[in-house]
Amino acid sequence: MRQVLSKPERWRIYRVRIIIEMDKLGVSSIGLVVLLSIFMGAVICLQTATNLDNPLVPMSLVGYATRESIILELAPTMLSLILAGKVGSSIASELGTMRVTEQIDALDIMGVNSASYLILPKLISALIFFPFLIIISMCLGIFGGYLVSAGTGILDLQDYMDGIHMEFKVFHIYYALIKTLFFAAIITTVSAYYGYTVRGGSLAVGKNSTKGVVGSSILILIFNYLLTQILLI
Amino acid sequence: MIELKDINKSFEGNLITKGVSATFEKGKVTQIIGKSGSGKSVLIKCVIGLYAPDSGSILYDGQDYLELDNAARTEIRKKIGMLFQASALFDSMTVLENVMFPLTMFTDRSKSEMMDRANECLQKVKIIDKGHLYPAETSGGMQKRIAIARAIALEPEYLFADEPNSGLDPQTAIVIDNLLQEITQEYNTTTVVVTHDMNSVMEVADKIIFIHEGAKWWEGDRQSLIQTNNKELQEFVYASKFMKRLRETLIKGI
After folding, report:
1. Which terminal CB of chain B, N or C, has fewer other CB atoms within 10 Å?
2. Which of B48, B49, B105 lies nearest to residue A9, judging by beta carbons?
3. For the whole model, what pTM was predicted?
């Protein structure tokens, strides 16, 4: 970790690499995020609406529940778990393959700090880009619920929108973004660690890639609990 | 010049390199030969700093590499060119970008100057027209040449090659050998090659070191290799009937 965070040899090159990594890790995940978020929001809205059959409970609670579920948990945590699978395995297998094909050794021999050169841009780009993905997810999740309300008629659109505006706390957005930053750091560092330390051949790359995903997923769940306890209680 | 003094290296208690001392001279090609698993690659990886030896010293022009701090080691590493067995080209970069990489990392040249130098290196290894390709789109022989071009981009003082001819046909292997020899003479590098290829040894080696069971077993030049009576070395060099007959012919000729 000390090697990763040591001062880069050339910031100019790192800036270029950060942009490349943002494209690889972030931009390429937008499609998945869009699809998942719309369906997540739609399903939450649908499930809540079908379960609220008490006439004394206002239907606007469906919008409220959808918003809170998405902002507090589904967008930051569920999406980070999915990104741990997509991005984490990509990082671990990329670095693992570089290790077994001696590309990392080649960097070391040239005098390049390979850990910093390969991992730091990934970490920085994830820290910058993942919060954007989560904000996109929040908006589209709520939009998914809106589509269900408008499309199925299961609840009145006005009720849904009233629920969305009900008792909105800006801190919940900050809470979600703080969690996302932790999760972004976990996904990149844990997967990079398993990829960078591969020993052996292609079988070891596969094994370490899986370890990276499992390890980062477990840490995300643990940190999710800890951060919730610290920030919300 | 590189001097090794009593290098020992073990893995999990298993001693792989046993007290190897050797000198690699400037402007000469030293070839390290030995059976698979004899510890040649471990030795070269100790020399270039990928493995830390358990004991001994490695002197790069008098500077003990193992005693240096990280900054000083990095300075020495910048003077090293390395050709890996599997070429170790960066597969996310084109051929030209691979060759430009050390220049980008360690020089302040403009992009056009770096491209000129990279093209000059590609010209030297005779693949000037392949700069736009990715390594995966080139053959094994070309990849070795690209790796040589990358290794010489910064005009190294020390050049290492680990099995440069493995997986290559005899003609391409000769091209690689000749390139290594040319570069050694042109840049006056200290060149160290680990190899199994006896053709290569007989073709370009100025000095030969035979590693057996982790220890330096024999050292000499091509002429003395032909005449040697060292049993283990003979078994290694003249393992095939063809080489045995060749030796008899050569000795008769002498």
Report:
1. C
2. B105
3. 0.85
